Amino acid sequence: MARLPVRVRRLLVGGVAGLVAASVAPALQAPVARGDAPADAPEATVFSRVDVDTVPGASFTVVGEVFAGEKNLVVSGYGALNSSGAPQGGGTLQVYRPGAYIGQWTKVSVITPGDGIVFPNQVTLTDMDGDGDTDLLLPSGYFFDRDQPRSAITWWENRGVGADDVARPFVRHDVITGQLGSYHGVQHVDLDGDGRKDLVTTSEAGRVAANLDDDIVALQVFRGLAGGKFAAPVTIGTEGGSIPVVADVDGDGRLDIASSQYFGTGSMADNPTRASFLWWRQTGDLSDGIAAGDFTMHVIATLAQTGPGFQIRPVPDFRGDGRTVWVGTNHTGRCTFSTPQPAEGVFELTPGEAITEPWGITRLSTPANPDPSCPAEFKNDRNMIFPGDDITSRAVPGQAAPGVFGYGDVDGDGDIDLAVSGDGDHRLFWIEQREDGSTRLHTLTAPGERFGQSGGAVVADLDGDDAAELVFSSFDRNAVAIWRSGAPLESVVVPSTLRVSGAGTVRAGQQTDLTATLTGLDTQVPAERPALRVTFTPARTGKPVLRGILALARTRKGTFVGRWRERVAQAGTYRFHYAGRKNDPLMQAGAASYDVRVAARSVLTNLSVPRKPTSKKRVKVSGSVLPAVGRKVRLQRSSCVRKRGERVCTWRTVKTTRTSTAGRFSFTTRVPRGKSRWRVVVAADASGTALTSSVRVVRRR
After folding, report:
1. Which of 124, 200, 129, 199 is nearest to 159 (CA)?
2. I need a labelling partner for 610 at 20 to 30 A (CA). Which of 6, 137, 446, 629 fits?
3. According to the UniProt entry, where is the signal peptide (predicted)?
4. Cβ(515)–Cβ(611) under 8 Å?
């Protein structure tokens, strides 16, 4: 029997390489009402798309608080693949920090291809070192590496942000490296109750993709040790799947492990009773360590019932009655092979009175107009989007549907809905929970829109508007995008605020120190550094002169600061101007200006007056004035007379001149015999303040 589609899901990309897009889809799609509703039903929910970034081989996305007070997106990317779908090198991991609105994100690179992490998979957000912040626990590895042991579990220490609000580099810590089996998901939880958190994961080696019998599956526990270290892995079972979940499944107060199963099942025809969904019940005493005999496996559903499983997870209060409900997705392709396959679907899995017996199965993913037939044109065109409403994998070996799912109130009606990745289906979906308890499958993506092989399916309120957004990352499209309810975002201009402090009155020729602070729209990443145009308008001429460009540095979120230092030659007005930011298609920063008036305190230098007695009738008095150009300078002599027995002195202007362009002035004047007193007076004008020199005495013999 031919191997089931997606022995690889997105990993056997030999048949998928031609589907991978080179660029992100348009940033915004026209709003589309998804799904048909009966006449008496409420109006269908409308969604619009906002793109976040292009990530080569975008795979998994999770949402959480990595940096304090933020809702961050954490996205892994597989990177470049060769023609057979195998990784050519390392992948990437990035954290996105929110900006001023839902479409604005700043990327923080955690790992690059140079770090050598092959196929980084689903990150777990958890405090690994007990310092109170969120670190990144990263499983990695390629399912079909055969004899290349490149899989690993690493964690990346969060060192927070600096005073400038720029994230510090994450620090790598290795749990295990050089493994053959791929690690797809890992849980950080105190499984044995000793006060230290352990790691629970599944190692899956598919080895030869076409061979159903060479898979190696190991459900593993890494026991937590002192100092944040972990013991070597203990294999507690050889059945399970990529993303195990640790929870008290049977309500006995002890933690169990639930999992879907895709690898290690063999063919469905030969093994119809093999588990597609299963759980491992804790039955042993873990106080003296964890061993294989401490957990007993029980079947939830079989291959014959659902086909291979992709994901299972608990959904709290799914039915609004306080109970936790288990939901799972299978991973099949009914249109790929002639041998009948269970239809692609999402299922509610409900235990009966005997929880250790197989559970009840309810299909949740039925659309308003189900039509599971496989048209010939669809089976012959792998790029074709299925023409019906059912979740349907493209008819290509190596592909299957659906994939990951998330939960939350998608349509804002107060109950829990599901967001679903089509994975091998080009589309995205959501499942509406209705008032009568029934569910209805809707297509999230717009008609003709492709976003296949997606991770994420996160339902979260990212912008604090009390409405949930849906986050997906598509391997096919190399893209990360958000779907929000309502019409597309409209372009708006957010005002910027500019303030400049310092200045006042400055001694001419000395340096002024002005500090510019720009606040408002936080659109700038540190590398961009908003800039201000600085002009100076002399009070004397009224003609502005460009003095330069001031680049601002980010000091905290939404605040940029720069210092302007320049020698002041004359009084005038500095203007600092921010032109705004225009390259964001949806939200622009408005322009802002700020004027600073500077008064120049006049300075008299190099004043030359004869100090020694002279016999000359004429003497020269010279000096320099700042501010310089065209200043009116008076040479004055003291004249004294006696009035009513008292000596009264007044200053009389003897000569007047104006300074040169360099601020120089010079007088030649007659001096009387004997001792006379002189001074220089600079008149106030637009360029500088008034100034009077000290008194100088001239003695003529």
Report:
1. 129
2. 629
3. 1-29
4. no
Please give the full DSSP string across 400-461, using - where no structure is assigned.
Answer: -B---EEEE-SSSSSS-EEEEE-TTSSSEEEEEE-TTS-EEEEE-SPTT----SEEEEEEE-
| H/E run at residue 272 | none
Peptide bond into 402 cis (omega under 30): yes
Task: Please answer whether residues 688 and 508 qualify as being in contact, where contact means their C-beta atoms are separated by less than 8 angstroms.
Answer: yes
* Higher-pLDDT residue of 521, 337: 337
For the entire predicted model, the pTM comes to 0.77
For the chain, give the longest Cα–Cα distance: 135
> What is the model's pLDDT at position 491?
74
Cβ density class 312-342: b for 16+ within 10 Å, e for less: bbbbeebeeeeeebbbbbbbbbbbbbeeebb
Mean pLDDT of 642-648: 87
- Report, in angstroms and rounded to the nearest whole number, the Rg of the chain calculated over CA atoms: 38
Architecture of domain 13-163+181-485: 7 Propeller (2.130)
Band of the pLDDT at 207, cuts 50, 70, 90?
low
Domain parsing of the chain, residue ranges: 13-163+181-485, 492-601, 603-700
The position carrying tokens 């360029």 is 687
Pairing mode, strands 124-126 and 479-485: unpaired
CATH for 492-601?
2.60.40.730
User: Rounded distance, CA 307 to CA 329, Å?
Assistant: 10
CA distance linking residue 282 with residue 257, whole number of Å: 8
10 Å CB burial of residue 55 (0-12, 13-18, 19+) is: buried
Q: Name the helix (H) or strand (E) containing 635.
A: strand 632-643
CA 92, CA 480: separation in Å to the nearest integer? Answer: 13
Distance, CA of 177 to CA of 199 (rounded, Å): 15
